[in-house]
Structures are given as C-alpha cells and as structure tokens.
Amino acid sequence: MPKYSFALKMRIVNDYKKGDCGYGQLAARYAIDAMQIKGWIQTEKRHGAEGLRKRYRYHKVEFKLEVVRQIAEGLSLQKASALFNLNRSQMQRWVRAWQKHGIEGLSSKRRGDSMPLPPAPVPSAFEKTKGCPRRRLEREVAYLQVKTVFLRTAMGRGLNEADLDSRTKTQLVQELRIQYPLDALLQGAGLPRSTYYYHLRMAQLPDKNARLKGHIQQVFDRHRGRYGYRRVTAALRSQGHCVNHKAVQRLMGLLSLQCHLRRRRYRPFTGTESCIAPNVLNRSFHAAEPNSRWVTDVTEFRVDQQKLYLSPLMDLFNREIVAFQISSRPSFQMVQRMLEEGLEKLSDHEKPLIHSDQGWHYQTPAYQQTLRKHGLTQSMSRRGNCLDNAAMESFFAVLKSELFHCNSFSSLEQLAAAIREYVVYYNHTRIKLSLRGRSPVAYRHEHEARGVCSSNP
C-alpha cells in the first residue's frame, strides 16, 4: 500500500473544505482512491490534523478486542478508521487474527495472521490466578456474549434496556439459566444477587391482587376490549369493589389489556349554505329532562365494494339512542322511518328540539312538515362545522372504534346485525362516566324514579 505524506493529506483535506470539488474530483486530481480520501477527511474532522500524522503506537489487547467487537457488530472499516484513528489494513489484520486464533491472535507480537503462532506455554500457577490478563479477557468476552444474548431476549419482547426493571430482569435471567451460568447472567443483567433472590421469593408468594385481576379481566372481556381503565374502574365500583383507578391502570398494564384506539378522520362539508333553520342548539349538548333535545345524523360504512348507512336519533339527556334505521342506500325513507320511530316514544306534552347538520334529508319539505305537525323545533349546524353536532359525531366515533374497525365483516347483513346488537349494548350495558358510571337506560330509570318520589312525598 503506498504511503502518503502529511502535507499531501492536509492539502487534499483543505481542497475539500473549500467546497470546490467532491471525493470523485479529488480522487481524479490526485490519482488516489476516493474511499481513502473520504477516510482522511473523516479522520481530520474527528481527531484534527494530528490524526493524519503517521504515528507508531503500541495497542493493548483490550483495545484491539474492542475494535474487533465493533466491526463484528456492523461498524464499517471506514467508520472504524475515523473513530479509532487506525489504518484499515491494520484493522483487517486484527479481524483475521481474531477469526483464526481468537484472543491469542490479538495478543501475539507477530504481524499478520499468515505466520504461525508460537506454541502456547504450559500455564504456570501465577497464570491461573484471577490477575492473569488472558483470564480477564476471557471473562470479558464471556460477559459481552451473555449481555448480548440478554439484550436480544429483551428486545424480542419489545423492551429496551432502559425499560428493564429488576422484576423483568429476574424473569429474563430465569429463562436463560438453562443455557448460561447464574453469575454471568447476573453480571450481564446488572442485577444484584440479593435483588434477584428477593424477586424469586416474591414470585412464589400468593398474588394479593389475583382476585382483582380476575374481576378486571372479566369486565374487559365482557365488553370485548372496549373499556379503558376509567370505565373498568367505574364498572368495578358499581359491583361493590372499592378500588383506585391508578391501581386498575397498573394492573391492566401487567395483564397487557389495552382498549381499542379510536380512529379520527376529518370530513369537510361541501354543500351549500342552508337557510332552512338556525343553529338553535348552539353546541349546548346538555338537557335537564328526557326527550327535550335530540340530535341526529347519517354515517356510512364500507364492506368490500358495498356501503351501509345508519341514521340514529340520540337523546342529549342521557345520550340514549331512542331510534335508528339501517339501509343500503342513503334515502329519505330511512330518515323518515327513523323520525317516525322516535315520535312514537313521545308523550303528548313532549316537544323536543331536534338538531342535525345541513344534509339534504333534513332540508326536504316532507321532513320539515313532519316536524311542524308534531310541534318539534328544528335546528341545523353551520355549514361545514362538524363540532356543532359533536355529540352525534362522538357516538359514530365510538361505534366505529369499538365495533367496525376492530372486526371484519363479510356482508352487509352481518354488519347490520352487529350494529343492532351494539346499539342495544350501548343503551343498556355500556356505562358512561358522565352519567356517574351508569348506562343511558339505567340513568333514565334513576331519573324517573326520583321524579316519582318527589311527586309522592
């Protein structure tokens, strides 16, 4: 390999810093390999001008072993040359010597790996002690091997080294004890022996949260993974369990129970401005009495190349779905049947406000005539503002995240049956934290019971 002077190296580096030419142009100008030039530039960036000077240094075996280890783990020769300020051919000799003779190849004073090594002397009593460099290096190599296996096992579980607590480390050590000695595993895991045995004893004790974990699992499974830790806590409290929400959150994490995440999508409104009805509701999504404020809308589902439409009617008093219709076409008849179904549940004195967006269904004369006939007040959102009907949009988001997105459906009939089943579940079983941990129907029954008691003292 040709030798290059320090002055030539600095001239090439300075030419590169001027920004006039790149690696290829410098290689053509000076008739030097472009990779060699790139290595000089990186060395000068990391170690300065002194890094380009030819120096004769003695490298300890520990240093050689570290260089070889990083190259074996994927570090390129070019990056290693800049990192350690070494010649590439020198590092290649170290790698070949390590592959052929192990640590002895790195500790040999002979140059290159082609020359035979001297026969190993008979170890003396002094060499058998712990202070022997060879024994120390062998222990270091064993330590690195065990730690690598330990970290790979943790990464296989999706854990980073920073996320490993002492309990998790104990579990990993137990799994690897069949293959490696305990002392090496504890050293590789950085786990004190006393801590290891403490967690082993704790694991053998009966779990004081076993019953609570069982109740949490039952609630989670009964609601098909739709409940997070807040609703699970409310459900447990309604069953008579005195439990803190933080404890439920921690135990659900230990059980790997995670509710379905809601997908959000913005759908802009592209229709024309309507003057049919003003925004009377004005985002006041609370009602003091049942059947005083209703909201409605239409949403779409896709199954393969087919579409299914749902038109529900919600009571803002308890967020109960008082009526709904399902159709394969977004026709006016679907909305009209939904409205008639809701009107049948009203008493003579109940005249609710009904709010919707500016969809074409709600602008038809037949729809407005039905509202006037029964004394209902019509309210409409502003154009393109989905927040004016946020209560209905929230129900659609919950429905799709808890039913549609987490299941697969082969036909529209199967999806329609699942929606009907979910609406019954939503009204009668699914609790809402805003309703003090009650389902919509249970909350309405409590309100009606309080009204009867107040009228009959």
Automatic annotation (TrEMBL):
InterPro entries: HTH-like_dom, InsJ-like_HTH, Integrase_cat-core, RNaseH-like_sf, RNaseH_sf, Transpos_IS3, Transposase_IS3/IS150/IS904, Trp_repressor/repl_initiator. Residues 286-448 form the Integrase catalytic domain. SUPFAM superfamilies: Ribonuclease H-like, TrpR-like. This is IS3 family transposase. One of its GO terms (molecular function) is sequence-specific DNA binding. It holds the Pfam family rve_2. PROSITE patterns: INTEGRASE (PS50994). One of its GO terms (biological process) is DNA integration.
